[in-house]
Amino acid sequence: MELDRRHFLSGLGMLLGAGSLLRSAPAYAVELDGTLIIGMSTESSSMDPHWHIQTANSSVSQHLFDRIVHMDASQNEVPGLAESWRNVDGNTWEFTLREGATFHNGDPVTVEDLIFSYARASDVPGAIFNLRAYLGDKTFEKVDDRTLRVITEQPNPIVPRELATTAIISKKVGETALPEDYNSGKACIGSGPYKFVEYVPGQVIQVERHDGYWGEKPQWSRVVFRPIPTGGSRVAALQSGDVNVIDSVPPSDVEHLEKDAKLRLGRGTANRMIFLSFDQGRDVSPYATAKDGSAIPNPFKNHLVRDAFDLAIDKKAIAERILSGNGAPAEQLVPAGIFGHNPEIALRDADAAKAKAMLEEAGYPDGFKLTLHGPNDRFIRDSAVLQAVAQMLARIGIAIEVDAMPANIFYKRAASGGEGGVPEFSFFLVGYGAATGEVSGVLRNLIHSYDDASGFGSNNRGRYSNPDLDALIEEGMATVDDAKREEIYRKCCAMAVADLAVIPLYYPISVWGMQSDIQFEGRSDERTLAMDFHLAG
Amino acid sequence: MFASILQRIGQAVFVMFCMTVVVFIGMNLIGNPIDLLISPSATPAERARLIAEFGLDQPIWVQYWRFLVGLVHLDLGTSYIFNEPALRVIMQRFPATIELALAATFLSVLIGVPLGLYAGLRPYAPLSRFIMTGSILGFSLPTFWVGMMFILVFSVQLGWLPSGGRGDTVTLLGVKWSFLTWDGLSHMLLPALNLALFKASLILRLTRAGVAEVLPQDYVRLAHAKGLSARRVVFVHVLKNVMIPVVTVVGLEFGSVIAFSVVTETIFAWPGMGKLIIDSINNLDRPIIVAYLMIIVLLFVTINLVVDILYTVLDPRVQFSKARTR
To answer: Is residue A280 situated within a structural domain?
Structure first.
């Protein structure tokens, strides 16, 4: 036979030799006015800034499009396209447009562009995660060339924050643009610090610096976003120098990246609360039964039971051990630094013995049977968190079972899976975060009683209801004076926590990884913005 | 042959039809994209408005009828996530997947057939034993783990190859390809090898088994006796007969690489269709799921057809008209 071992091996050797010639480009080092490459865990689903307002989309669109008001790293209002704004009376706000702001095509930004943008943003066909929640109650008027008047139906103190959600597009371009023109870049004309270069779905987004930008010029002349969905691959891309920055460092990699001298981590506590919600609406809750499975009156209507649960769950242990530092234990509805946070509310220490005694006092000396529901692909290590909570509750005598399911099934059942289209679960894990960056979103949508007509309590799946608290929340929502409103909201937070409307569990901590010559302070809105990254030294 | 092709197309249409019905009923049971994607600040009225806008408040058969009407107009619907026609979203990612699948298949044949041939011809040589043991690893190591190891070794430690993504592309016939640039090729090597590993082991074992079966047969001995060169005996008489099962497997595996290369695509951030379908299922993006599965059905039918035609080339005794009764 001619095909012998020698021939075969030499052939193999040649193949391998050829393979080792393939060398990738050298690792990119960052330099001033150079390119910044960002590895993103989630891909932006569209370049249309008024399409789904999810974190990944908002991150990218903020490079290209300005807002009338911007949010700084801890979600405080700072001037955007408007240089100033004032509250004329409860229902009226006036914004003064800055001079010198231009779109990427050279046109100046006008009041007409603002009005057009708000009209379009509330009417994009097919946009599910849309901006109507923030724009619905407002009418917009042009006062003069530089003044926009916003009139709301009810007194609304957070108009600037609500308008900070909406990207400003050019009326001239936007009027004739088709949905696909945004992805091709034809209609991607904003006034932001970067200009559109290229968008290849799932592959890459490239933007370059807009030299006529009115604000502070970013340090990078070009920014490349690459979606890298797998955590391990994202970390590997950072370590190999293929990208300069990554978002969402997986909990398991935090420790060894911290030790890597060539890398650095940046953290920001997200304005998002992951919490446990009780069914407090129905008289009999389907997943809370006696230990033999027979129906019992809904135990969660009893404050003592809710209190015992809160005391039994060791939030610190969950944050430290399960989330490995990617979460901070939550004692209230929003983390410190967010408007409405009440510094007087302290984190309770878990006490299983006391919790068991309280459960006994409430009339459940032997506990009861319960199913804990939650998603298994939505939050960091969500199944593990569910298991940990279950174990902690088992310690006080609850016969608990965990039912974790994919988010696509979970959310439908959590919203309307029960009899008659009501929320299905008795005790479940969910999260809430509001783009407005203050506490009123949580209070209004999560804590306020569910009310179809007014739309309050739309996310109150546990149907918690306290009329006194409702009145206080509504009072806060109509109070324009910041100091007074903060006072009211702090009181609301204290009441909601004391009443155990929900059990706040943790605030996710977003962790970014970057090369050690890059500096970044972290953000509370989970967005990754090239403008926030600076060359060290 | 023409009638047979027509029959295949008929089959494909029928399978597609059944599949759309199953997807519609299945998706309806799981949930709706509104509850999943809606803004946490939206009011119940807004939720109801959206459900009506998408027609999700209609009975399932009305929704299905609307889908069929759209289909007649060559409209598979607009993606709930990407705000683009479903077909376009898929077609944007199709070249990347096809390219990767072709590269992986090519590599697996390139590795599998010579190694299998060698192991079959010299079953007791130490190298053959080594190859066979190695192929067990190829079978049993999980793709996910191997992919991560590739990245760790070749990108992070050695720095030879990029860790993921698609690299530079060149537009040819209106489609972006990366196999035409050096940078694109270097991006493709690791994911293609990762995908090829399992298939190469499979092909290797099939080839070896085939060779072991064919070698003792009379016609091979006759060929030797006739004084044909060893090269001709092995590469014409033996290999051609071994190829029939291999071609079948390569064809089927090619289809499954295209349809289900999600693990590799995700690890290497390869912008193909595999990741798209998983994301779409997670987001309940029904137009994409339906369009994707229809394309996959069409693809499998086409591949089977090509495989059948290849049989007749490899073995003149196989007739196409008989092949369809298999």
So the answer is: yes
Neighbour tally for A56: CB within 10 Å: 20
- Check: complex ipTM more than 0.85: no
| Residue A159 near residue A93 (C-beta atoms within 8 A) | yes
Residue B1 has a pLDDT of: 65
With CB atoms and an 8 Å threshold, state whether A412 touches B276.
Answer: no
- As given in the structure block, the two tokens for residue A29 are 């080092």
Q: Which domain holds residue A298?
A: 272-509
Calculate the CA B120 to chain-centre distance: 28
Buried b (16+ CB within 10 A) or exposed e, B38-62: bbbbbbbebbeebbeebeeeeeeee
Is residue A317 in a domain?
A: yes
DSSP result, A175-188: TT--HHHHHHTTT-
Helix, strand, or coil (residue B184) = helix
Q: Give yes or no for a contact between B230 and B135, defined as CB atoms under 8 angstroms apart.
A: no
Q: Hey, is the C-beta of A412 within 8 angstroms of any chain B C-beta?
A: yes
A205 located within any domain: no
Q: A415 and B231: CB-CB below 8 Å?
A: no
Mean pLDDT of A513-535: 91
A95 bridge partner residues: A85, A148
> What CA–CA distance (Å, rounded) separates B4 from B314?
19
**Concatenated DSSP letters of A92-121:** EEEEEEPTT-B-TTSPBP-HHHHHHHHHHH
CB-count burial class (<10 Å; 0-12, 13-18, 19+) for A14:
exposed
Region for A228 from its dihedrals, namely left if φ exceeds 0, alpha if ψ lies in -120 to 50, beta otherwise: beta
For the record, the structure tokens of A195 come out as 């200009």
CB neighbours of A145 closer than 8 A, spacing ≥ 6?
A97, A110, A111
Give the CATH number, domain containing residue A427: 3.10.105.10
Is A432 in CB contact (< 8 Å) with chain B?
A: yes
Provide the whole-model pTM.
0.85
Whether the CB-CB separation of B190 and B158 falls below 8 Å is answered with no
Residue A66 reports pLDDT greater than 70: yes
C-alpha–C-alpha distance, residues B282 and B198, integer Å: 27
pLDDT for A118 equals: 94
Q: Looking at the 3D structure of chain A, how many domains does it have?
A: 1
Strands A273-278 and A502-515, how do they pair? Answer: antiparallel
In B, residues 27-86, which contact A (CB 8 Å cutoff)? 30-47, 50, 53-54, 78, 80-84
Q: Which amino acid is at A113?
A: D
State whether residue A321 sits within 8 Å of chain B by CB. Answer: no
Cβ of B221: how many Cβ atoms within 10 Å? 12
Task: Please report whether residue A143 resides in a domain.
Answer: no
